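Quick one, probably user error.
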């Protein structure tokens, strides 16, 4: 290869690299500008009424309180009873910017607390259901885990154990219902959960 040809290819290579770098920087700048525009709009949103949001409702849940003597079960039950007195919202997958745009920044601290309550609820229900299963109280485990699924917990272990218990009892129709529910999850675990449920059908 001649020196001139080598220099020519080098110039072309450098030009391509420079163009790609320029294009990437421009896209990054556009994304950053879009983010800050939305953030500024969100911070200017007026406070909205959040009293009628889809808060977790325990009224129809037949949860197995005070049935068995076990320290971990008692801890879970105590935590659930404490949470029943609080407002709980499943805000999984919704950014703070989106929350502020929809409800106003003044509501963000409350909404954040309600979402944290949901996270604690989902984790406690999962622990409760798992422990009931370990102790062979499978009917009670199904009651706890199915409630967790009904409020759209995105903990994969919750869905997997419930699907396992349904499969063991031959309730494939229940697993199909779980798939319909899982399809509406707003979480990164949605696809893994759907794939897992398919293995039980």
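Nope, works fine. Designed sequence:
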């Amino acid at each position: 290869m001649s020196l001139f040809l080598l220099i020519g290819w080098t110039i072309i290579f450098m030009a391509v690299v420079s163009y790609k770098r320029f294009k990437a920087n421009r896209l990054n700048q556009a994304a950053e500008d879009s983010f800050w525009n939305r953030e500024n709009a969100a911070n200017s949103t007026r406070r909205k009424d959040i009293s009628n949001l889809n808060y977790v409702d325990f009224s129809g849940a037949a949860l197995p309180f005070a049935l068995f003597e076990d320290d971990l079960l008692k801890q879970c039950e105590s935590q659930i009873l404490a949470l029943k007195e609080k407002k709980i919202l499943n805000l999984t997958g919704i950014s703070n910017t989106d929350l502020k745009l929809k409800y106003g920044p003044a509501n963000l601290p409350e909404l954040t607390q309600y979402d944290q309550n949901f996270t604690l609820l989902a984790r406690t229900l999962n622990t409760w259901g798992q422990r009931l299963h370990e102790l062979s109280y499978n009917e009670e485990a199904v009651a706890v885990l199915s409630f967790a699924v009904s409020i759209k917990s995105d903990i994969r272990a919750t869905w997997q154990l419930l699907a396992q218990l349904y499969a063991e009892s031959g309730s494939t129709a229940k697993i199909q219902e779980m798939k319909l529910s899982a399809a509406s999850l707003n979480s990164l675990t949605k696809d893994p959960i759907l794939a897992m449920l398919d293995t039980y059908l």
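Residues 3-43 form the longest helix (41 residues).
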